[in-house]
């Protein structure tokens, strides 16, 4: 039977490809206070610093490849209707072959206009002061920063409302609004949670769920054996 599978993915999936998770144990992102590089205030205070931060991340992204977890998620599409809702700003899901990917927090390989947020451009080079949109407004990273709304949230809720299976992988789901998505899955939705240190929320407890206490790549192998029984 073809089922609708919704994958909720986070930094743990891309970490095995060599993508830094940005935030260190002390709360710093690559040596910067998070508000310096991931907030509207930081952007207004020092645009050169913010641009450089994401330029570095973008260059790193070009040097890595999808790992087996990304590939296995894409492989699910052969038998099922699969949608990926990711907190990651990289494009490794797409490069692995996933066709239905929704980015909650934006995308590194895109920029957008500061004067018209509907003007979004593919962008693989560095962003520099002086780069502008077609209307003359400065360009900024196409990233959802702290304190900003998550434009894709409503679409994410619509996607998960009728899921048969939800897969939580590489994320603790403790950061809102992404953490609240599982509450919109129907009660009959079977949940698989892949993470070395899973956080069992109330929303998870009231649903049929299976914990796979492992990293993303090996955890996906276990998941496939469950789903393909």
Condensed summary:
The protein is built from 9 helices and 11 strands.
Mind describing the biggest β-sheet? 6 strands, parallel
Roughly what fraction of the amino acids lie in strands? 15-25%
In CATH, the homologous superfamily of the largest domain goes by the name TPP-binding domain
Strand order of the largest sheet: 5-4-1-9-10-11
Query: Number of DSSP strands?
Result: 11
User: Treating each run of at least 4 consecutive H or I residues as one helix, how many helices?
Assistant: 9
Instruction: Give the CA-based shape.
Output: elongated
Helix content: 25-40%
- Structural class computed from helices and strand pairing: alpha/beta
> Could you say what the CATH architecture of the largest domain is?
3-Layer(aba) Sandwich
CATH topology of the largest domain: Rossmann fold
Explained architecture:
The strands form three sheets. A six-stranded parallel β-sheet has the order 5-4-1-9-10-11, with helices on both faces. The protein has a three-stranded antiparallel β-sheet with strand order 7-6-8, with helices on one face. It has a two-stranded antiparallel sheet with strand order 2-3. The chain is α/β, with parallel strands linked by helices. The chain is 30% helix and 21% strand. It has nine helices and eleven strands. Strand 4, helix 6 and strand 5 (101-103) form a beta-alpha-beta unit. It folds into two domains: 1-19 and 66-105 and 150-229, TPP-binding domain (Rossmann fold, 3-Layer(aba) Sandwich); 21-63 and 109-143, SIR2/SIRT2 'Small Domain'.
């Amino acid at each position: 039977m073809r089922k609708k599978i919704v994958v909720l993915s986070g930094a743990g999936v891309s970490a095995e490809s060599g993508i830094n998770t940005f935030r260190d144990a002390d709360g710093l992102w690559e040596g910067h206070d998070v508000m310096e590089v991931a907030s509207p205030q930081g952007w207004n205070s020092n645009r050169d610093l913010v641009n450089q931060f994401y330029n570095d991340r973008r260059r790193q992204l070009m040097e890595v490849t999808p790992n087996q977890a990304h590939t296995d998620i894409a492989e699910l599409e052969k038998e099922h209707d699969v949608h990926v809702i990711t907190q990651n700003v990289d494009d490794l899901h797409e490069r692995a072959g996933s066709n239905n990917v929704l980015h909650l927090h934006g995308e590194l390989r895109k920029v957008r206009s500061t004067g018209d947020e509907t003007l979004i451009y593919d962008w693989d080079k560095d962003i520099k002061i002086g780069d502008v949109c077609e209307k003359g407004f400065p360009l900024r990273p196409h990233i959802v920063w702290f304190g900003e709304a998550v434009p894709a949230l409503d679409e994410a809720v619509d996607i998960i409302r009728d899921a048969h299976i939800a897969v939580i992988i590489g994320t603790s789901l403790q950061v809102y609004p992404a953490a609240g998505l599982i509450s919109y899955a129907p009660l009959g939705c079977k949940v698989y949670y892949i993470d070395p240190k899973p956080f069992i929320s109330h929303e998870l407890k009231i649903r049929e769920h299976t914990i796979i206490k492992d990293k993303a790549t090996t955890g996906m192998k276990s998941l496939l054996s469950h789903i393909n029984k």
